[in-house]
Design a protein that fits this description.
Elements lengths: L1 H16 L18 E6 L5 H9 L16 E7 L6 E4 L2 E6 L2 H16 L10 E7 L5 E5 L21 H13 L4 E8 L8 H9 L6 E6 L11 H4 L11 E2 L5 H5 L4 H14 L12 H9 L9 H30 L7 H24 L6 H16 L3 H4 L2 H12 L9 H13 L2 H25 L1 H4 L2 H35 L3 H14 L12 H41 L2 H8 L3 H7 L4 H26 L1 H8 L5 H13 L4 E5 L5 H13 L2 E5 L4 H7 L8 H11 L26 E7 L5 E7 L14 E4 L2 E4 L13 H4 L7 H18 L32 E6 L2 E7 L4 E9 L4 E6 L9 E7 L5 E8 L7 E3 L12 E5 L2 E9 L6 E9 L13 E8 L4 E2 L5 H33 L5 H5 L1 H26 L4 H22 L9 H29 L4 H36 L5 H9 L1
Parallel strand pairs: 1-6, 1-7, 2-5, 7-8, 8-9, 10-11
Antiparallel strand pairs: 2-6, 3-4, 3-5, 12-13, 14-15, 16-17, 17-18, 18-24, 19-20, 19-25, 20-21, 21-22, 23-24, 25-26, 26-27
Helix pairs in contact: 1-23, 10-23, 11-16, 11-22, 12-16, 14-15, 15-18, 15-20, 16-18, 16-20, 18-20, 25-26, 31-33, 31-35, 31-36, 33-34, 34-35
Subcellular location: Cytoplasm, Cytoskeleton, Phragmoplast; Membrane
InterPro entries: Cyt_b561/ferric_Rdtase_TM (IPR006593), DOH_DOMON (IPR045266), DOMON_domain (IPR005018), DUF1442 (IPR009902), Dynamin (IPR022812), Dynamin_GTPase (IPR001401), Dynamin_GTPase_CS (IPR019762), Dynamin_N (IPR045063)
Family: Belongs to the TRAFAC class dynamin-like GTPase superfamily. Dynamin/Fzo/YdjA family.
Length: 1192
Amino acid sequence: MENLIALVNRLQRACTALGDHGEESSLPTLWDALPSIAVVGGQSSGKSSVLESIVGKDFLPRGSGIVTRRPLVLQLHRIDEGREYAEFGHLPRKKYTDFAAVVKEIADETDRETGRSKQISAVPIYLSIYSPNVVNLTLIDLPGLTKVAVGESSPSNGQSESIVMDIENMVRSYIEKPNCIILAVSPANQDLATSDAIKISREVDPKGERTFGVLTKIDLMDKGTDAVDILEGRAYKLQFPWIGVVNRSQADINRKVDMIAARRRERDYFSETPEYNHLAQRMGSEHLGKVLSRIKAYKTKHLEAVIKSRIPSLQSLINKTIIDLETELSRLGRPIATDAGGKLYMIMEICRVFDGIFKEHLDGVRPGGDKIYSVFDNQLPAALKRLQFDKHLALENVRKLITEADGYQPHLIAPEQGYRRLIETALITIKGPAEAVVDAVHGILKELVHKSINETAELKQYPSLRMEVSKAAVESLERMKEESKRATLQLVEMECSYLTVDFFRKLPQDVEKGGNPTHSIFDRYNDSYLRRIGSTVLSYVNATCAGLRNSIPKSVVYCQVREAKRSLLDHFFAELGKKEGRQLAKVLDEDPAIMQRRVSLAKRLELYRAAQDEIDNCGTAKKPSSLRAQKPESNEFISALAAGMSAKLIVQVTSEVSPFTVALAAAAWQTGGKLVCILPESRETIEELGLSDMVDKANDYDRLQETLDVNLNRSVVVSSNLLDGGKGLGGCLKRVRSMTHSIGKGMEVTMIGKGSGFGSSKSGSYSVGRERGEVKMDKSKWIFKLGSHHPVVAMEGRWRWAFLLASLVSYIGSDAAADEGGGSEGDGRKGLCSTDLTTFLPFPYSNLPNMVCQPLWNSYLLRYSKSKDNEITMVLSTIYTSGWVGIGFSRDGKMLNSSCMVGWVNQEGQGRIKQYHIKGFTPSEIKPERGELPLTNVPPYVAVQGATIYLSFQLKFNTTLKTQPLLLAFSTKPPHHHRLTVHEDKTTIYLDFSAGKTDDSSGGVKSYLKDRRTHGTLAVMGWGFFLPTGAIMARYLSRKDKVWYYFHVPIQFIGFLLGVAAVIVGVSLYSKMHVFFPAHRGIGIFLLVITILQVLAFFTRPSSDSKYRRYWNWYHNWVGRICLFFGAVNILVGIHIADAGQGWKIGYGFLLGFLLVTVIVLEALLWLRRSADADKQHPPFSINSIDREISL
């Protein structure tokens, strides 16, 4: 119960600090959801005296009439030692040790809000009292209920006429909340039926499920009367017993009677008064304080059950509100940076998003770009067709233009000037459609700009920036339109300025072929001749239009569309770089209401996260969730599976005890086996649960290890136990046995089983008894035999078992990934530094000048770029599935006091990256945003591409960074509310930033590429060329000459040496890069073995007349064929996993094809030769020869 009260206390204090007072607002409130205790009663009912008796100090104002005019939130904090003091929420750093000053400050703060009138205010006063004489408790003292207004009717001098309803509404607003516990104070010297506290409590809690009755002024009742019926619940029954108190009288207060003497007199009154002496044990203010703080178990429900029942709903509310707040904050966008560099970067990032959306419209990812093609494909041809060339080339117009073109000297042979003028005047009309195309594309681009602006969510946040971007984009489009129009009209003018001569040179040939040469030159002014001229000009103009129909779109795309994609905002960026901080602030003029909303949401989110952490850290909040049923069919299936396999040792890895544990325990009981659970629980949790360590003697460790039959080489790591008492299997009380033992290098083992078994009496540390229906367990100390030198112990976290478990999982995962075809496409396996960062990382992380790409550890790869002013831009990448990935900077290579950058992806799929400072090894000592890394104004960035996560950040050091210890770590569990989970594996490497190498990898990527190329060349030459060439010579040249036959031996020996060299380079390559390709490596080792056997077989060859020679030949030939086959296969596998490129594939494909064709040709020749030899040895029979033999 202490934990629950302390939890509520801390949550209410967090609400106070972060401005959540439960008032009406647009923000979600946590205050209203917290369990609280409100003190209600009528004026002069003794509320103040009750509170002061609980605290043990005079700290409340006193007087006639209404004194409490504002709610007082009183938080009591018990301290072990020291001087007691008080603090106000509105004066957080001022400590009051004189409680008379506390009384004055309460009165003064009340007057500040309400004035010196008798008016009331709903704004609470927050007061915290720290004392060794109080209990951890939070109470809300509400104004006393009244029936009439007092003082003058003027609001400035007295109470308003509505004061009665105002106070009643204020009190009701507090106690009507289902999480509020009502402390109803009623005076015993008045009829209970007229009690204001009981009346209003009954309205909001008719069943009395959350109402505690306190009866005051019992000593002031009329003689002959008593309050026994009330205190025993007969006059008015509540779910909880009434508590009577005797307060100090006004005379006692005036005489300054202290609380100790007052409580002694109160105890004497109840014990010595005959009517109350049988109730004396549960009467008095001292008992009231205990009831409110710890609440001893009653036969009925008590305060602990009330508060405890609210915790699950409170957790659900907090989790849902956190999601809602994060969603709204994400929708509102990031806050504006404070410095000019940050503002500039922010503007450029927003513009980059807009530019990306605009390009997506043009490229077809988003709709709109197809309209430009429609202009080229439909609008331009239709406009050209609408040009009325027929009217322009009418007979009279042709005659007129030719005549005018001749001037005073008519043409001699052909009217060339007339032709030119006709063509030029016709082609000039094409300028209209050309300009129309430019204008149409310009309109589409403007439309796409406005559409992209509307689709850029970040621009909606900043109206001025939105306007500036729109204006700059339109201005750029205008400039591009003018340039495009100029270039397009130049195309038309070029056609006008120079005509295609070949077209007209064909005309005399046409006349000679099909014309009528008898016509006189003077007849060419007749209509037929003019029509021929018009037809010729029309043909030429149509041919030119067809050419321009293809050229105009090219010009428009080049000058408008292409430039819009490349440099739409270049001019805007140039102007932006000239602006100062104030000018940039004007561009980022976010709506003040949105800024205020973001700040409020951030503070409220901080409150809810703090509340979530508080509840998570409260031991009682965890236990109910551990044993809640989840997927019972899965539990039954696993249990049945384990029992069906007759499992003797069952191991469970889990984050908490669940129905799976019970199901597996049932299976173990059925099979007579044993269950070992891997549970990440802390020692504090075990001690709070009262669980015991059964084994406390040395011989018991060996006996338990033998009983569990644990293999020392394949032990499981278990971190402690968690299981509540209750009826176990077989009718025995279930209990938990736990111990630590140096299995391997230091582990803890937990066994869950029945009550019977080993260690029943020897340990003496466990006892089970039943008293009043409760299970009691004796605590015993935990025995740890973990060596401090072992890395499992060095982690000092709740997840020590994850160290070995993660290693096992990563090893199995690497095997599985490799078996599926060569590993990941990430940096550690394939492609390495060739990944294009511009597709998913922002500037400057996407463009690293003079980039150094250095493998670090496992799949970790670090890209970095250094500038002259000691600025380093880093991009760390590694394989990612879940959890977090981190890189730390340490002075001495140790984790303690290091600063690190950690990145992960949250449940909404959003990347997160934060800086942490590791001050200790518990989550509370690893604070976000507390590191010492000199980050620049460029915000860190995290992205996931495929199966690889990229952490990007920029640092600026005062001196040149040389050799630096780097910590690399990961966890499969993501941070919990930005609190890091314990890492599952880590390492320390020393990186020389000046040379770009680590202690264990000096060559870097260049060395890797060189070794990879050498390895491939040697393998292709050895396994892929010399060995097949030798085999071909051995098979097909053996009959030519023995010299040629035996020549295959040195050739194949050369191939063997080259293959061995390839294997050696491959081993060196593996040791540098720490990558593992089991198929490629396994085939290579197999090839090495069988080629060595072939070489040894050569030296052990039997003589030709030996009877074993035939078997040796068979073995030597078939092993050689197997070697050739697997050599070709392994070369293809190596080319594939190394991503060697088309050159290697084509080159080896050509070599392999050449060898196959050679083998096929030689095999065919060999078959023909063998057929010819067979014919010579066995000549065919003929009918003539048979007849000749018969005649003879």
